Amino acid sequence: MKKTILIAGSGFAGFWAAIAAMRAVSLAGKADEISVIMVSPAPNVTIRPRLYEAVLENMAPDISAQLAVTGVQYVAGRVEGIDTDNKRVTARLNDGQEMALAYDRFVLAAGSYGAIPPVSGFAEHSFNVDTLEGAQCLETHLLDLKHKPHTAARNTVVVVGGGLTGLESATEMPQRLRAILGNEDVRVVIVDSAAEVGAGMGAEASAVIQQALQECGVEPRASVRVTAVDAGSVTLSDGEQIAADTVILAAGMRASPLTEQIPGERDNSGRVLGDAYLHAPAAPGVFVTGDTVKVPTDNAGNYNVMSCQHAMSLGRVAGYNAAAELTGLPLHPYSQPKYVTCLDLGTWGALFTEGWERKVLVTGAEGKKIKQEINTLWIYPPKADRDALFAIANPDFVIVP
Ligand SMILES: Cc1cc2nc3c(=O)[nH]c(=O)nc-3n(C[C@H](O)[C@H](O)[C@H](O)COP(=O)(O)OP(=O)(O)OC[C@H]3O[C@@H](n4cnc5c(N)ncnc54)[C@H](O)[C@@H]3O)c2cc1C
């Protein structure tokens, strides 16, 4: 009977895990003996890093052709149950039926979701740019603002969370609001509990971020938390109340709830602590990858962050290793010592940094060119050419040289 490598998720990690697994199976000449099956709600990679943008075009490219040309089978549904003792999962298919799937190797690549802090009103009154549906809902709301009476609340957006997603959303917003409302007085506020908005990027980058916020006309509110949100206002922990019809929540990500079904240790974000080969150490036959795993990236004490930069490499290594174990190929340890960030900062441009200390390398309009290249080329699935896909799916392939 054919053996099965089952992959949950078709994001950056799941896509590359599937192609890398199929590549290794083909390399070993075992395509007749091993199936690679991907389960996900839709055969798309959602380009989550771009969901803060105003124009939501081509944000979920179809990968059916890439899966077909490499021989990956696709099942439309969501994994609901993982039985690691008996090596089987249950999936809810898109037509509502339940399906049981046995596996020889399972790769969990179900990603992450935007966490909603336990603050009154967030769940009911905030928007997000975490999912395509969330971003579309925000866009519809923003377009509707022009039909509402001119008030301070209508013209104000509060972004909660000064991490990368919050900063990109906030700095994009003044021009986006003006494009919708005309040349009105628009107000964008970004709130963070750290001593300075953007402090998490380190002192050098943070100084650049302050300048960009100022030039974009975004008001930082540091050292405060949001204590309540309602349909027209946001209340801060220092007592300030900001009239705002639009609140965007970007307060951090949590790993897929499926991680709770994998035995073993997890970090504060719910990520499973993986070993160097991306095994879930306490669940034989299970690999964890992308935003569902925490693992060292180097020997200097650094760990992957929830990013597509890491997810693409983690996916390749997990998929390859799942196939290597079934085919007798040598296992490939995960290593990704190079780390860069490219932060879009609206009309000011973008900030490109290198290294974990985030050394500032490129800023402004030059940085924006790099960001556009990353956002329109680097992170998209390549076209459906088997050899080209297999070349990039090599776990030795370096994304950021
Ligand atoms: C606004 C925003 C900006 C970002 N900017 C950057 C950036 O500039 N640079 C960067 O590197 N990263 C950025 N990120 C982070 C990056 O998008 C994620 O880290 C990356 O998407 C993780 O890839 P993944 O494949 O692990 O998970 P995901 O991309 O989340 O994919 C998960 C997949 O699993 C599927 N799935 C979920 N549940 C199930 C289930 N139960 N069964 C089966 N399938 C399931 C989903 O449908 C999806 O296909 C940003 C994220 C956001 C939201």
Automatic annotation (TrEMBL):
Span of domain FAD/NAD(P)-binding: 4-313
Sorted UniProt keywords: FAD, Flavoprotein, Oxidoreductase, Signal
Cofactor(s) the protein requires to work: FAD
Signal peptide: 1-20
InterPro entries cross-referenced by the UniProt entry: FAD/NAD-bd_sf, FAD/NAD-binding_dom, NADH-Q_oxidoreductase
Domain of life: Bacteria
A Pfam family matched in the record: Pyr_redox_2
UniProt record similarity statement: Belongs to the NADH dehydrogenase family.
Protein name as it appears in the record: NAD(P)/FAD-dependent oxidoreductase
Organism from which the protein derives: Serratia rhizosphaerae
